[in-house]
Amino acid sequence: MLDAAGGRTPSTHPALRHCVALLRLHLASPSLAAAKQLHARALRGGVPLSHPLLAKHLLFHLAALRAPPLRYAVAVLTRVLPDPDPFSLNTVIRIAASSPRPRLALALHARRLAPPDTHTYPPLLQACARLLSLRDGERIHAEAAKNGLATLVFVKNSLVHLYGACGLFESAHRVFDEIPLRERNPVSWNSMLNGFAANGRPNEVLTVFREMMDVDFAPDGFTMVSVLTACAEIGALALGRRVHAYLAKIGLVDNSHVGNALIDLYAKCGSVDDARRFFEEMGTEQTVVSWTSLIVGLAVNGFGKQALELFGVMERKKLVPTEITMVGVLYACSHCGLVNDGFMYFDRMKEEYGITPRIEHLGCMVDLLGRAGKVEEAYDYIVNMPLEPNAVVWRTLLGACAMHKKLELGEAAWARLVELDPGHSGDYVLLSNLYAAVGRWADVHVLRKTMAKDGVRKNPGRSLVELRNSVYEFVMGDRSHPESEQIYKILAEIAERLRREGYIPRTSNVLADIEEEEKETALNYHSERLAIAFALLKSLPGTPIRIVKNLRVCGDCHTVIKLISKIYDREIIVRDRSRFHHFKSGSCSCKDYW
Question: For the DYW domain, which residue ranges apply (predicted)?
Answer without folding.
Answer: 502-594
